[in-house]
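seq as requested:
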Amino acid sequence: MRSVITGVAGVGKTTVLDIVSKQTGIKIVNYGTLMFELAKKRGLVENRDQMRKLSREIQIDLQKNAGTEIGKMNDVIVDTHMSIKTPFGYLPGLPEWVLREINASVYIIIEAPPDLILKRRQNDPTRSRDEDSLESIREHQEINRAFAAAYSIFSGATVKIITNEEGKPDKAAQDIIKVIAVD
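struct tokens:
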């Protein structure tokens, strides 16, 4: 069983997934971390935020290789992004060749109000993110829904939207556990 769980930066995905992993024992695999490790090994980047600025061709190659690695794993939750906002437009986080390798049975999108996401980003000193507006965050969440629908049509996996309200990551985690428990 493989589940893909996504959300824009600052939605609280890592906090929610830590709770899910502790309560279920299911391993969380971070797709971006795998891609970053590959890029770093090749000397292409020094930090994760530089990944978005790599050329489209290099990002696609990194996606392919990370997808192949995940495809070898069983019973995992793949922590990733439905789409990656680049200076050139939105890049699919899970293009066809990655969907085939991962073969997920459900895509879960964690969402939060854009103003809450913006506040969380501004209070995170560990990252060096590009400036974003509320409208841009809203647009990115809408794009993620569209990408999830397209992935579902291709793969047959279901799509579930989970809201991570302020101060309620346990509730979001429980909502996710209900979905993956029947998978």
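The helical segments are 13-24, 31-41, 56-71, 96-102, 114-122, 134-155, 169-181.
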